[in-house]
Write a structure and sequence with these properties.
The chain has 78 residues and is mostly helical. Helix content is 64%, strand content 0%. The protein starts with 18 loop residues before the first helix and ends with a helix. Keywords: Membrane, Mitochondrion, Mitochondrion outer membrane, Protein transport, Transmembrane, Transmembrane helix, Transport.
């Protein structure tokens, strides 16, 4: 199980942030969340497409090659 990493403010100077900086960080957080969700969705779809498309792709490529094998020759393990 992955552990969460937390960053705590250490000892040192306290820097006050402006409202514009807070807004910019908020928009960056939203953008990062959007990219993470989009990439997760894309990878899930790619996994399904690869899962169901690999064998048909191999059969189609095999049927279009020279010499032309029969379908039973393509599907047999020997």
């Amino acid at each position: 199980m992955a552990s969460k990493v937390s960053l705590k403010a250490g000892k040192g100077k306290v820097v006050k942030k402006s409202a514009a900086a807070d807004e910019e960080e908020g928009s960056m957080a939203v953008a990062a969340k959007f990219v993470k969700e989009w990439s997760t969705w894309t990878m899930k779809k790619a996994k399904v497409i690869t899962h169901y498309g690999f064998i048909p792709m191999v059969i189609i490529i095999g049927m279009n090659s020279e010499p032309k094998p029969s379908l039973s020759q393509l599907l047999s393990p020997v």
